[in-house]
Structures are given as C-alpha cells and as structure tokens.
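Budget justification, computational time. The allocation requested in the original proposal was used primarily to generate structure tokens for proteins on the priority list. As evidence of use, we reproduce two of the resulting records. The first is shown immediately below.
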Amino acid sequence: MLSLSTGMRQSLGVFMPAITQNIGVSVSQFTLAIAIQNLIWGLMQPFTGVLVVRVGFKIVMVLGSFLYLLGIIVLAMANGVVEVTIGAGFLIGCALACNGSGIGMAVATRAVPTEKRSLILGIVSAAGSLGALVAAPIGQALIQAFDWRIGMVGFVVMAALVIPGAWYAGGIDQKPIMDKSVNDDIKPMKVVVQALKYPPFAIMAIAYFVCGMQLIFLTTHLPSYLALCGLDPMLSAQSLAVIGGFNALGSLFFGWMGGRYNKLFLLGLIYILRSIGIAYYFYVIPNPTNTLIFAAYIGFLWLGVIPLVSGSIAEMFGVKWQAMLVGIAFIAHQFGSFVGAFGGGLIFDAFGSYDLALQIGVSIGLFAGIVQASFALFKTRPPSSL
C-alpha cells in the first residue's frame, strides 16, 4: 500500500513538463494542485487518525485507496487546471490521509512489540519508499514512448493495486491494543491539547515544516530544473528512482539508529545534512553524474524522518492516538509541502529561476535543524494525564 501510494505521489513531477505544454496549465497552476494535495493530506490526517480508532483501519485505508484510484483517473482525463486540481490535488490528498505514511506507521506500530518498534517502522518506511523505483521510470518511459495520458494509464493500474494492499493491512483491526499508556477515557481534543503543550512534541511538529518544504520542492521542481538545464528528461525519472532506492536504505538505517540514540536529535541532524546537500548541488553545474549522486545522498536522508517521528510520538504518548498525533505534527509538514510546491512555482514564474527559492529553503532548513538538535538535549516528561 505504502510503496505504490508513496511512489506515485513522489513521481507526479515527471508529468509536469508534458502537462503544462499540452493542456495549457502553467507551472504555478500545476504546483498549486500538488500544494493543495499536500495541504488537504495534512489537514485530513488528524481526522482519519481519530476515525481509525472509531471504525478501524481497514475501512479507512480501503476508502482511501478507491479515492486514490479516482484521483489518478481524473488527472489522466484532465483538459484544464480544474481537473488537475481536483485529481492531483483534492482526491489524492484525501486518499493519502487514509493510506499514506501516518496511517501505515500506526498499523506497523501496533503489529510489533515495543523493543522492535523503531526498526520495524524503518523497514515499513523503507518498503514504502521503493514505489518510486517503479513509478517514476514507468511513467517517464510511457510519456516518451507515447504521451503523458498513456503514462497516467500506467499509474491507474498501479493505483488499482493499492486496494488489495490496504485490505490486507486492515487485518490489524483484529489485534488488540497492548499498550495501555493512554487513558482509555480521555477525549481526542484533550490528547491534542496536552501534546501541543509538551515542548518536545511542539518543537518536533514545527520543525517538521522543513521536511515537507524541502522534499516536495525537489519532487515537484527537480524535473523542471533539469529540463531548464538542457538535460535528458529521463534523468529526472532516474533521479526520483535513485531517491526511492536510497530512501529504503536511509529508512532502515534511521529506524535502526532510532532504537539506540535520541530520535529528536537524529531528526535535527537530518534537516541540517539535507540543507547542506541541497545548497551544494544547486551551486554547481548539474550533470548526470552529480545529479544521481545528489539523488542518492538526499534519498538516504528522505524518509528516515518517518520512523523517527512516529517512534517518538509512540514513546511520548502511546499507540492508541498515535495516528491522530502524527497527523497533528503532519499538518506543519504539509504546510511546508504547500510552500515548497506552490512557492517554488511562484518564484520561478516571477524570476525565471529557482535561486531565491533555494536560498530560502536552505536557510530555513539549517535553522530548524539546529533548533531541533539542540532542543533534543533537554529532558522533559510527558503530561502525566497521557
């Protein structure tokens, strides 16, 4: 479920050059659709987190999978900005709130004992990242051999395969919650308020903005940047595939590290290293070799945040409301995604280059990473009522 839904979502950028040329949609309009997708995903995630407690994971994830399929179909049939916004924006955004990383990590957390949790979260996150190895090259190959609509047909087939994955993963509903660290009688809003008052959670959630901003900027705008530099369009698909492959390694590594070292400090370190890598790559003249090296580097640091954030929240507050609290933190991540996708498009349309967007993204990333890593050194206790 995660492999395909994440892989297709990360690969939508390969369609941007063809769509913007074929149906009269501007770069900023396409990126606004991606920005809306991420905003809807973030705003919906806390509510689907509550919903899985009420009705179970299976119903939520299967519903999300059908919404994903519908979104891809609408995008494949698009003839203007409205259909692009509805398909790639609203429908896929709602779908990801139901079957994306937040819900997937909650399923994985419930399935394993506490001592194995961080590593298993890394393994599931790694599996979720492998979809880009398939989706991006298939999409780009179909675009080059036929056209972008045939490329979307390939995505329709992959979206259909998400449904049985969601159905099978929903079997976790039959497993009782073993973690009793959360009061069964506490109301969802009380959990949210207490969590937001807890400084380590609040700082982690705010810093999560940077993660979304940097990563969605790359998945959305890297294909356009490489085309602007006159490089082979297939290089962008290859780069996204390399990111997906090294995603898996990074997720495993940071899942393993999170079981041994301070998860919040590791998060700060990831933000700092990402910012340094982005600054260096966009400073030099791009070519196939340094582009693929950059993709491997940034891919290793890509989804390693997911097991660290999910694991930290489970440790702080238990697993019952984990999906909801991941969703609360994820709102900041998705506002960052909105800024990275749409803001990058606006800056490009206004100035004809990505220089200002990169300067802003790197500066904010370094600041947030330093604050997150520094704050992780302070020890505070979670609210006793949770």
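The second record produced under the same allocation is shown here.
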Amino acid sequence: MSSRRKLKKNIITTMDLLCVDCLFYKIFATGADKEAADKIIIHIVETQNELLKRAKVNEGKDMKGGVKAYYKKLRVDIQEQANAIAREIMSLG
C-alpha cells in the first residue's frame, strides 16, 4: 500500500507543478492569453482527478502479474500526460 500512496503523491505533485507553471505564465507574462491558460488549468485538474481514480483501482488481480502491469502502464500514462500538458503550456508563450 505504501507504493500506491507514493504514486498518488507523485500524481498530485506533478500536476501541481504544471499548474504553478501555468499560473506563472498567466500572472507574469505580458500579453498572456489568460483564457487559454484557464483552459489548461482545467485540463490539469481533470487529468489529475482521472489519474487518481485509476490509482485507487486494483485491476489485473485475475492474471499473474496483472497488477504490476496495470501500475506500470499507469506510470507511463502519468509521464505522457505530464509531457503533453507541458507542451501545451510551452505553446502559450
């Protein structure tokens, strides 16, 4: 259970850092597109909620090694989502 807790903290920390980056852009960039930044922040929150829901579920119990594969896929998805959101933030300004 400890690793699931660490995974949830990792999700929250990653999404919080992305949100802070977007807020810095929104506040400090001159001529910032605030509406686009708000949409990205909403996307970050929705992504965080979806990933946290997936971290709570224990799929793959029926197959040997299924749980490990499920969480490995979840970690890959976290990284992909974070990279995609970071690219969105970079495209703002």
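A brief technical remark on that second record: The mean pLDDT is 90.
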